[in-house]
Amino acid sequence: MSNGGRRAAVAALIGLAGSPDHRDRADAGRGLASFAEMPEAREPLLGLVLDAGDTFVTRMTAQALLRRQDSAGLAVVASALATADLDQVDWIHTAVLDVFGVIDRERDAAVRKCEALERDADERTRHGASQLTAVLTEITPLLHATRNH
After folding, report:
1. Residue 51 has what DSSP assignment?
2. What is the pLDDT of residues 61-78, one digit of tens each?
3. Is 0.90 topped by the overall pTM?
4. Which of 3, 83, 87, 94 sees the fewest Cβ atoms within 10 Å?
């Protein structure tokens, strides 16, 4: 997809993110997560993770961002976690467990990326990355990679 097409898709999803219907906002969050590396998607994604109207939107958007398993998605979730209320924190933690509670090497890779984010220039990202690292390290994944000795 061209840059113009990507920007048009982000603009349409940002419009959907403003819907009064929580299902539309959750769909916007899942869709926008695909564009988390684009600067214009960051604030709308933060707003969706911190959705004041419905924690379903929080959970779905956080899951989609975490499933990227990259620094862009983790940074948005970390930034949101730094300012989230208690309900939002609970649902973000649930999303973290949903995504990283299965395979240990995926969890371990996320921990390394969060540790790098703890050195980010943005204070909110640093603080949230520290919280996210703590949540990740408390998870005992179900599957462990075979290690050669």
Report:
1. -
2. 999 999 999 999 999 999
3. yes
4. 3
